[in-house]
Amino acid sequence: MDSQDARSRARGRPASTLANRSLERGIEILRAFRPGSDVLGNGDLAERTGLARSTVSRLTQSLVDTGFLQYDAALRAYRLGAPVLSLAHAMHTGSAVLHVAAPLMRELAQAEHLNVGLAMADRDEMVYLESIRYSRKVSLRTVVTGQRVPMALTSLGRAWLAVAPADERQGLMAVFARRFPAGWAELEAEILDAVVQVQRRGWCAASWQPEVVAMSAPLRLGHHPVHVLNVSLSTRASVAETARELEPHLMRLATQIDDAFRAGIGAL
């Protein structure tokens, strides 16, 4: 399986042998914009996407024509257009999973003063669909809806890897090995241990940010792609100690979401 297959599977659909290359490249242009990248010129976009500048120039013109990019003549660069945000809003408000999960997540966060999140996989990252922050301690780490976090380092990503098809997990592990060559042996062991934890207990825990421990569990809800639920806490306690505290809350919430989702399907 090549990286394109892994990316397609992570988006919740099989890889297509008849993919529209121009469309894919146009999407790569949009993907090049990340937080902190307000405007990007053709050179920036070519560097970030690996596309030829002539291809980038052609695609950015089409994206400007359709409104997905805005051209700033003074800066000779592009910024994302309003339709991009509109699509995000449509996805967020139209999610049947979020419709069920968000109220239950908010209830737990408020009652226990925890951070509660729900995420999906995108390539080798996890994207928060919802992030409700009620931490007991002020943390420098602020997570918002739409934010990306690395799959390899987080409990979110490792929980997703635990239930991913074996070939896809293997392809992503090869990506991680290239990205983290210096400490790969230790990181690989952590990921594989997390996979075992999820398969045995239904959850895994990690602390990839200082004094923040997170625990995650995958959710399989009907025909939807796998979502991953997590709870986190700002603490100086060990991962093991914090996991014992968080496990009942996480697994109870996962069960509540699953039950509510099934009940909602039955009511249709």
TrEMBL record:
Pfam families named among the record's database cross-references: HTH_IclR (PF09339), IclR_C (PF01614)
SUPFAM superfamilies, alphabetized: GAF domain-like, Winged helix' DNA-binding domain
Domain IclR-ED: 76-263
Keyword terms, alphabetized: DNA-binding, Transcription, Transcription regulation
Origin superkingdom: Bacteria
Domain HTH iclR-type stretches: 20-82
GO molecular function: DNA binding; DNA-binding transcription factor activity
Transcription found in the keyword field: yes
Annotated GO biological process: negative regulation of DNA-templated transcription
Keyword set includes Transcription regulation: yes
Gene3D superfamilies associated with the record: 3.30.450.40, Winged helix-like DNA-binding domain superfamily/Winged helix DNA-binding domain (1.10.10.10)
SMART domains per UniProt: HTH_ICLR
Protein name from the UniProt record: IclR family transcriptional regulator
Organism: Cupriavidus lacunae
